[in-house]
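Schema walk-through. Below, the input block comes first and the output block second. Nothing else is stored per chain. Lengths vary across the set, and this one has 147 residues.
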Amino acid sequence: MKTWVVYLSGEIHTDWREQIESGAKSLGLPVRFTSPVTDHAASDAAGDHLGEEEKSFWRDHKSSKINAIRTRVAIEEADLAVIRFGDKYKQWNAAFDAGFCAALSKPYITLHDEAIIHPLKEVDAAAQAWATTPAQVVEILNYLIKR
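--- output ---
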């Protein structure tokens, strides 16, 4: 049986990734999950070893380019992506990941509450599914893999 690779992108302040991973494991689904660096401080410091910067723009620029290597490789290697948008912070990086998936014709599922349907209408329009709970994502994975 094929092992599916699922990239988990987006919001880092809740346990949605763990819920999906444990749900897939409890069903015995052959899935390997990948994700961006979810430690905010570590992600922000990804380029610090390249030298200090006077302006935060250049620090962010270097770190984002290094993080983009991981993101690009992970999305390209994934069979599909799950892109989570939380309601507390703006996840511009998640929107970018969705656009990258769309450009690659990589299927993705959005995961967010109804309260933010309107600002995500274009992102949702290109998605293959929209879920409101991690359990729904697990149900989709179960269907895709076992049916």
